[in-house]
């Protein structure tokens, strides 16, 4: 009788094959090299040891002039400061509607510097219409402004984009990016020669945010809910003050917590007294998802800014780098 042949059934054979053939999954290039994926192309010969200084002191001076101006007296009775800010926002939207929107195809040095000045001043003007904010010490006001103006810009422009999408003024790939300017997120070009020795291809994943996660989803929520100007102002306040409070702690955290509590009470009155809504938590939760997405994007950009500094990716530096941590 011949020798009995074992392991001829399919199950045992497949198990043995898997046991013999089991190998570790291949390492990613990032793991093998020991660098994050978005800096795999870091080349020592392109590191910038001598940097060009961009002085934004004059920009801060201009902003401080807005923040120290006496508030404009409006012959209208407001229930609270949130309502007062809303009237200013409505006036801003009326003025915007009279101006054509410029389509930006390329973002280079000129566009970036204009972008910084235009939007930093726009944020300062918005803060200047915030009654409780204007009574703070100037150094506190400037620290809050410098740390949060880019967050203010992101939310304000996403809300403006949602409004244009809702009215079919802009296509689904076109987003507002600055005061009076928009771009196509799928086709716009970056010119980075002025700020780095690396190519756009090498830094594309590093520089450009994840549009689907941080922009499109937020615009979809804003388009669906169509927040009122009171709601939008509250979202801007919460986003900006929350960021400043977390960053500085101490005295500024106490200030931002106090201001947010005042505006939370004002928003509650708006929902319950004006809109007669007894249960508004679901709507507010959806709106806050937009703020959370923007804050998450800001955290990612801060981490990338830290890595950019370590690896000397850029050839420029700013006189006030705290203004550009999430740029």
UniProtKB/TrEMBL annotation:
Annotated NR LBD domain residues:
52-327
Superkingdom = Eukaryota
PANTHER family in alphabetical order:
NUCLEAR HORMONE RECEPTOR FAMILY (PTHR45680), NUCLEAR HORMONE RECEPTOR FAMILY-RELATED (PTHR45680:SF9)
Pfam short name (any one):
Hormone_recep
Which organism's genome codes for this protein? Caenorhabditis nigoni
Q: Does the keyword ATP-binding apply?
A: no
Q: What UniProt keywords are attached to this protein's entry?
A: Receptor, Transcription, Transcription regulation
Q: Which SUPFAM superfamilies match?
A: Nuclear receptor ligand-binding domain (SSF48508)
- Under what name is this protein listed? NR LBD domain-containing protein
